[in-house]
Amino acid sequence: AVFLTNVCVSCVCAGGLGQLGIGLAQILREQYGSENVILSDIKKPPSHVLNRGPFVYADILDYKHLRELVVNNRITWLVHYSALLSAVGEANVALARKINITGLHNVLDLALENSLRIFVPSTIGAFGPSSPRDPAPDLCVQRPRTIYGVSKVHCELMGEYLHYKYGLDFRCLRYPGVISVNTPPGGGTTDYAVQIFHDALSTGHHECYLRKETRLPMMHISDCHRATVEFMQAPQCQLSLRTYNIAAMSFTPEEVAQEIRKHLPHLKVTYNPDSVRQTIADSWPVRFDDSNARRDWGWEPAFGLQELVSDMLQSIRNKRATDGLSIS
């Protein structure tokens, strides 16, 4: 979680050591002060995270402890990132149900009890094979076939219900696949689009677990963070929805490989589709319709495929050089 505290805003981020929490906390700390943004997780944080601002241990399933954190730190915003992603969730449905649904209810109850504003991300996985795929609009049939997707649809509907019944300031964005150099893949179906960059610069070979023509919506992590902050800061009067799609680009494994080859012509990609992840990907949209986000609160991405590839390759080169690793 990310928790924002009570000077002008106070925030706690649950699941804060995952792909998104650390970067979002850094942006919020630059705007609101380091002491007003608290990261939380059940994992031991690396030293560079501890040095940047407050961190607390918090188990999303321990409601009493979460309530103590909120009360003692005068929290006003709660950002809830704790979740098991699509492929990992399918491997442990019982645990995914606990974390993704019971954990959600804990933070929703906390938000209601303490008049918090709450942001929870949703996902491309909230759509299913009967949803419109090209593009998928904000409002349509959603019949996902993963526990991750089911839990996120549940989240969207519960948040909207609590907003209209009790006035809860619940906000939710459906993220596409998020591509970042700073954290390793975390068990999502779109994670190949992170791994391929590391493989291109380390071994020159990537084995992809999806078919080469599998098109999915993707986004650079900096666009994802910026969309989240802009959405959190948007006045309520501008919002016609509580859950919005956000989009930036849509590509296939072969298309991103071809773009990488403009920089690294030696890259070899082989395809060995994994039945679980391929089935999941085939049930998801190939593009998002984010026209409501663009109209209501001015969303506009900065990164297309060319910019994404150039930035990722340069960032991974720099990181490998800093770590003393070779570059293929």
UniProtKB/TrEMBL annotation:
Belongs to the NAD(P)-dependent epimerase/dehydratase family. GO terms for biological process: L-threonine catabolic process. Gene3D superfamilies: NAD(P)-binding Rossmann-like Domain. It comes from Gouania willdenowi. This is L-threonine 3-dehydrogenase, mitochondrial. Catalyzes the NAD(+)-dependent oxidation of L-threonine to 2-amino-3-ketobutyrate, mediating L-threonine catabolism. It catalyses: L-threonine + NAD(+) = (2S)-2-amino-3-oxobutanoate + NADH + H(+). InterPro entries: Epimerase_deHydtase (IPR001509), NAD(P)-bd_dom_sf (IPR036291), NAD(P)_epim/dehydratase (IPR051225). GO terms for molecular function: L-threonine 3-dehydrogenase activity.
